[in-house]
Amino acid sequence: MALGTAANFAVLAGKAVTNTGATVVTGDLGVSPGALVTGFPPGTKSGSTHAADAVAAQAQTDLTTAYNDAAARTPATVVPTQLGGTTVTPGLYKSTGGTFQITGDLTLDAQGDPDAVFIFQTTSTLTAATASTVTLTGDAQECNVFWKVGSSASLGTNSDLTGNILALNSISTGGGATVKGRALARNGIITLNRSTITQSFCQSPSSATPAPGTP
């Protein structure tokens, strides 16, 4: 699925981006229609900041399109709310309770297909517990993992989440949390705390050079 110009952002919020401590953002940071960005420094970023400008507004438009695409996809395989301790193969998933939790390790196995896509749909929340992890195997790529979150996502202290978070409302990260992908929130606030957000790109099958975009 395509993120459009939202793919240029590691962090994109609707109202504000706030940070505490030595957060590291690899990629652009943006907010629209809000304009508030605080905590940089002490946080650092490798890309540009777009606050209530045309670039951020277009990215939010494209994020809405991607979010609606992810939300409308069917049929989804229904799995338990708790994803921790499981291995998941490529596909579209939703939970029995409308939320997802990750406690411990979730393994995403692409079974040798680097183009394999994983989409997780929640009607409500995504919660990653303290020290939880999402591990890729079988040639899975970070760029091909999508978390469509119907309200807000919360990542616990020292958690390690892989994939693109597309949240309707807000995203918060506990101290030391890591996202390998993107933190994209349509309407609310992104709250970072000594976190590491690393924008991911797909690897071209014929080259080791990262290629922008998503499948």
Main sheet specs:
12 strands, parallel
Number of helices: 1
| Element-level helix/strand string | EEEEEEEHEEEEEEEEEEEEEEEEE
Mean pLDDT: 94
Strand content: 35-45%
Shape from CA axes? globular
Uncertain regions spanning at least 5 consecutive residues: 206-215
Distance between the termini: 5 Å
**What gyration radius follows from the Cα positions, in whole Å?**
16 Å
Structural class: mainly beta
Question: What is the strand tally?
Answer: 24
Range of helix content: under 10%
Layout: helices, strands, pairs:
Elements lengths: L8 E5 L2 E5 L3 E3 L1 E4 L4 E3 L5 E2 L3 E3 L2 H19 L4 E3 L7 E2 L2 E5 L4 E3 L2 E5 L8 E5 L3 E3 L4 E5 L7 E5 L3 E3 L4 E8 L3 E3 L4 E8 L3 E5 L2 E4 L2 E2 L6 E2 L4
Parallel strand pairs: 1-4, 1-20, 2-5, 2-21, 3-6, 3-22, 4-7, 8-10, 9-12, 10-13, 11-14, 12-15, 13-16, 14-17, 16-18, 17-19, 18-20, 19-21, 20-22
Antiparallel strand pairs: 23-24
Which terms summarize this structure?
215 residues; mainly beta; twelve-stranded parallel β-sheet; seven-stranded parallel β-sheet; 24 strands; globular; disordered C terminus
What report would you give on this structure?
- The chain is mostly beta strands.
- Helix content is 9%, strand content 45%.
- The chain has 1 helix and 24 strands.
- Strands 1, 3, 4, 6, 7, 8, 10, 13, 16, 18, 20 and 22 form a 12-stranded parallel β-sheet that branches. Strands 5-2-21-19-17-14-11 form a 7-stranded parallel β-sheet, with no helix packed on it.
- Strand 23 and strand 24 form a beta hairpin.
- The longest helix is centred in the N-terminal third of the chain and has 19 residues.
- The C terminus is likely disordered.
